[in-house]
Amino acid sequence: MTDTAARLLVVDDEAELCAMLQRYLGSQGHEVRTAADASQMDRLLLRERFDLLVLDLMLPGEDGLAICRRLRAAGETLPILMLTARGDPVDRIVGLEMGADDYLPKPFNPRELLARVNAMLRRQAMSGRAPLAARAAVIRFGEYTLDPAARRLLRGELPVTLTSGEFALLHALASHAGRPLGRERLIELAYGPDHDAGERSIDVTMLRLRRLIEADPAAPRWLQTVRGYGYVFAPDGAPR
């Protein structure tokens, strides 16, 4: 059992391998989510935060090298452990040049992967960036505290019960405080670019959210309407 529990995202199109890593790494204290390709990975990264990415090089569609290059070009600092079935040392060099932090060839012993993950997490902690489980990545507004890592909303010390859709919408807005967001963009941020939710569903979910957190849902302080466009999160409660 590791003493550095963290949230890990494993991206690999081998379902059996993903299931095995989810069980094994989970038994060692880590929280593990999985994705089969770049599209699934992007949806998870939009909605959740992770401490480390385990990324297969050979993926359908956008491969691991392209994903790694894209993430680093966008300023993503998430540590990346690259997996590959290829034995060519050139692939290892290119992966590291693209921004991967470590490299592990397949097939591998799960204990070695765990050791590498924990070593990367220790280096992360030494650099001053603690795992999500150990730090409070929260958004505060009024009497509320939104904790994305724990996926919860508190009113003072009391939890506010939200559905997953309500939480996703609130998180999407709060993560872009002060920026007006159209309904299509909110669907993409909250539910993923391939989600088939209609724009009306955003309005319905917003209505439920306002009833839960606004003192006067008809004149909201935090979740304000941008007429003819969408919504904006106002952390100070001032009219936008």
Keywords:
240 residues; alpha/beta; Rossmann fold; Arc Repressor Mutant, subunit A; five-stranded parallel β-sheet; four-stranded antiparallel β-sheet; 12 strands; 40% helix; elongated
Detailed description of the structure:
This protein is an alpha/beta fold. The chain folds into 2 domains: 127 residues, Rossmann fold; 95 residues, Orthogonal Bundle (Arc Repressor Mutant, subunit A). Helix content is 40%, strand content 20%. It is built from 8 helices and 12 strands. Strands 2-1-3-4-5 form a 5-stranded parallel β-sheet, sandwiched between helices. A 4-stranded antiparallel β-sheet has the order 6-7-8-9, covered by helices on one side. Strand 4, helix 4 and strand 5 form a beta-alpha-beta unit. The longest helix has 17 residues. The termini are far apart. The model has no long low-confidence stretch (mean pLDDT 85).
Q: From N to C, what is the helix and strand string?
A: EHEHEHEHEHEEEEHEHHEE
Distance separating the two termini: 49 Å
Task: State the helicity in percent bands.
Answer: 25-40%
Instruction: Please tell me what the overall shape is.
Output: elongated
Report the mean per-residue pLDDT as an integer.
85
CATH architecture of the largest domain: 3-Layer(aba) Sandwich
Strand content: 15-25%
Report the C-alpha radius of gyration, rounded: 20 Å
What is the CATH class name of the largest domain?
A: Alpha Beta
What does the main sheet amount to? 5 strands, parallel
Helix-and-strand structural type: alpha/beta
List unreliable stretches of 5+ residues: none
